Amino acid sequence: MERPVRRPLLELFLSTLYISAFTFGGGFVIITLMKRKFVDELHWIDEPEMLDLTALAQTCPGAIAVNAAILVGWHVAGPAGIAVAVLGTILPPMVILTVISFFYAAFAANRYVALVLQGMQAGVAAVILDVVCGLGEKQLKARSPVHLLIMAGAFAATFFGKVNVICILLTAAAVGAVAALPQRRKGARG
Amino acid sequence: MSILPELFWSFVQVGAFSVGGGYAAMPLIQAQVVESHAWLTMREFTDLITIAEMTPGPIAVNAATFVGIRIAGFAGAVVATFGCILPSLFIVSLLAFVYYRYKSLALLQSVLGALRPAVVALIAAAGLGILKQVVFAGQAMAPQNVQWVGVALFAAAFGILRRRRWSPILVISLCGAGGLALGLLAG
Q: Which domain holds residue B177?
């Protein structure tokens, strides 16, 4: 059920602000937090669409978090949504870096800061892998051999082969385009 | 050219050419900030990367804020950050328009269907990469290098998330507190 949200723009701003403040360690972390918030909690976006937006955010130039905020913002409330989501995403790093820039040497060398950050990293790994388990299960249940091959191949290529992410996405897109050809011919005949 | 437009233009270039996010942006930022403008020394740049990794937010936005503040105060931070996200605003909006307009086409459906399992695999690889960092702390993958505090926190967090729908941010914060407590206990 869609939870009625009285002020979607405010909710969008607070959600992106909150998510961005906790996004340690790169674009995929913010994607998993956005999935939990906008797909599982608010039901603003469905799951396949979130994966599509991830692929788009990843292929476009620029920071993945900002790109994802633009896409989610657009989806929720058009241009105003973009402005609100992007602002929510860039405010926390801006404020934090502004403060830290005045005493950065002490911050980087502090032992307590390091301990907290190491602990948080363990939590980040758990959140990402929990989301992956949910998404992976759905792919397995769909039982499409082509898609399972793509998933295994993409994982091996990035994790073991260190192949560029853009190359992997473009290859998967090409496989999808080729797979569409026989369907189209069938459609033309019938 | 005065400093603010120069700063803006430098980060427009960083934003426009860093495909793949995060680590892809680092050499571009270095080229702009250290090599062509000498706004930061290499030492300051290395500190910046360390801080960017320790604080939330995209590396490019962190770098834009840090460099902007240091050379032109708060106005510098705003101008550099805006420059950095401007190319994304154009390119991503254009692609979003195309996506929502044509996503029901059979061809695009098939392409997106093939992209989704690849995205799941990429997220899995990113998660396992972070887990490896948690377990071995950047050292060789050998039993004597295992960080037991990290392993325990990960196992607890993963168990909770799989069974109960706790907020991920609550879980991450608790792990931070747990890391501090266990780290102090371990001496």
A: 106-186
B66: nearest CB among A60, A82, A101: A101
Give the 3-state secondary structure of residue A171: helix
What single string gives the DSSP state of each residue in B76-123?
HHHHHHHHHHHHHHHHHHHHHHHHHHHTTSHHHHHHHHHHHHHHHHHH
Q: A121: Cβ–Cβ under 8 A, 6 or more apart, which residues?
A: A24, A25, B130, B133, B134, B150, B175
Structure tokens at A91: 């405010």
The residue of chain A with its CA nearest to that of B51 is A108
Does residue A17 have a pLDDT over 70? yes
Same domain, B10 and B84: yes
State the smallest CA–CA distance between residue A109 and chain B in angstroms.
10
B117 and B42 co-located in one domain: no
pLDDT at B59: 81
ipTM above 0.90, yes or no: no
Q: Does B127 touch chain A (CB under 8 A)?
A: yes
How many domains are contained in chain A?
A: 1
* Cα distances (Å, whole numbers) of residue B65 to A104, B166, B179: 13, 33, 29
- Which chain B residues are within 8 Å of A93, Cβ to Cβ? 55-58, 61-62, 65
Strand partners, B19: A61
Q: Which two tokens stand for residue B156?
A: 């607890």
- Is A95 part of a structural domain of the chain? yes
Residue A85: inside a domain? yes
Q: Is the pLDDT of residue B24 over 80?
A: no
Q: State the residue range of the domain holding A97.
A: 8-106
